Description:
- There is one protein chain.
- This protein has helices at 6-18, 41-52, 87-107, 126-138, 147-153, 176-189, 233-236, 238-241, 310-323, 373-384, 406-409; strands at 34-37, 57-61, 76-79, 112-114, 117-121, 143-146, 164-168, 172-175, 193-196, 212-215, 218-220, 224-227, 245-246, 249-255, 271-274, 277-280, 288-292, 332-339, 342-343, 349-352, 359-363.
- By secondary structure, the chain is α+β, with helices and mostly antiparallel strands.
- The strands form five sheets. It has an eight-stranded mixed beta sheet with strand order 6-7-5-15-16-17-14-18.
- A hairpin with a 6-residue loop joins β20 and β21 (359-363).
- The chain starts with 5 loop residues before the first helix and ends in a 6-residue tail after the last helix.
- The structure holds flavin-adenine dinucleotide.
Amino acid sequence: MARLSRRSFLQTAAAGAIAAPLARSQPTQPAPDVVVVGAGAFGGWTALHLREMGHAVTMVDAYGPGNGRAASGGETRQIRVGYGDQEIYSRWVLRALEKWKAREQEFGESLLLPTGRLQLASGWTEELSATKSVFEKLGVAHEVVPHDELSKRHPQMRPEAVEFALFEPGAGVLRARTAMRVVAAAFEKKGGRFRIGRAETPSEAGSTLSRVSLGGGESLSAATYVFACGPWLPKVFPELLGRKIFTPRRDTFFFGTPSGDDRFDHPHLPNFADVGYYGFASIDGRGFKVSPQGEQVAFDPDLDERVHNAYLLERARAFLAHRFPDLQHQPLLESRVCQTEMSVDENFIVQKHPRWDNVWIAGGGSGHGFKHGPVVGEYVARRVAGNDQEPELEAMFRIKAETFDASVFSGARRY
Ligand SMILES: Cc1cc2nc3c(=O)[nH]c(=O)nc-3n(C[C@H](O)[C@H](O)[C@H](O)COP(=O)(O)OP(=O)(O)OC[C@H]3O[C@@H](n4cnc5c(N)ncnc54)[C@H](O)[C@@H]3O)c2cc1C
């Protein structure tokens, strides 16, 4: 069983002696080894892995696992191996796919739907060529489907101006919100403690954090803290991350499918990605998903209302009219507004806080983090426990020197 360092153990003992007040409704327990703040894809999986490694872990979340504000709180998220030349992420997805399948068995819950994915293309780009090379190198099943063949296979899609599609048959859809609830339940079943509470921004002097305040005089003490607060990280650490993580809104639309017609339902059409859009066939009859990409409007994860933007709905409808004409007059069934947590280079962030030796930051999922959850969780848990098995990734996951340009925050591009 991996252990925290001797130094951390001494800190645990010290933290236990401080005997921080615990939740009023819960009996006093010894201080945990680790407090994980945030029960999303990054925090939930980290807490589960730390617990499975034998640590005493408390996980705290302001709104609960898979909540409607969290980046991990959507119904569905995509899993696909293609990442251009970023082979490391492709490798991680291959590991993640195996882990998702194993966890499905362990949890007894359907979490991964095999769908395949079509990347529609009007010609070879550097990104696509690199994706194909990495597929070949890693032995990932794929196929280049020419225009005419696309028309035959998927007559419900109009491949106008599409030369070919790069098809990834192993891609799929994850039931995101459900997964986060199941992960938190497994964590508790294995002896982890979960509670609702909002961690305040730490402000302690010194190089070691002794407690995380939850407001109202409550706090949690541990040897080590992991802040996996997703799009809230800039609020929790404004000085460190205020200009390093940007949280643009993402509007997603679910359109009705024609009555008595299952051509637009899973499993009759793979996930699709087009320039500026992506989406999925209707899953469980909940609607055909279309997500317009590229918006740069900052979104407050606590306070902003999740009402879709009329302009983005227009864009989604225009896309349907162009690519899936039989859906263009179908009604909107549902819309969801979420926010991503973009790091400046779209790499994840996993590093110690520069001020406190025992505080870790895990986040920066940058619109692609969900699928990696089981691998990220294992990776962060190992680093926290002093057992980093991939030291070559440390630099990639550091907070970078660059900041987001001020214009991104100005609201100048609001609609
Ligand atoms: C619309 C959309 C589509 C996406 N599509 C995909 C996709 O197809 N595939 C993919 O792999 N990824 C996708 N992503 C990205 C992925 O969902 C995120 O990278 C990932 O879910 C981030 O997880 P997280 O744990 O870092 O953040 P979150 O899931 O947001 O979790 C953070 C948690 O911390 C809690 N919290 C915050 N502050 C505090 C505090 N102070 N105290 C206590 N709790 C706190 C919150 O309540 C929340 O539950 C998408 C994201 C969006 C928004």
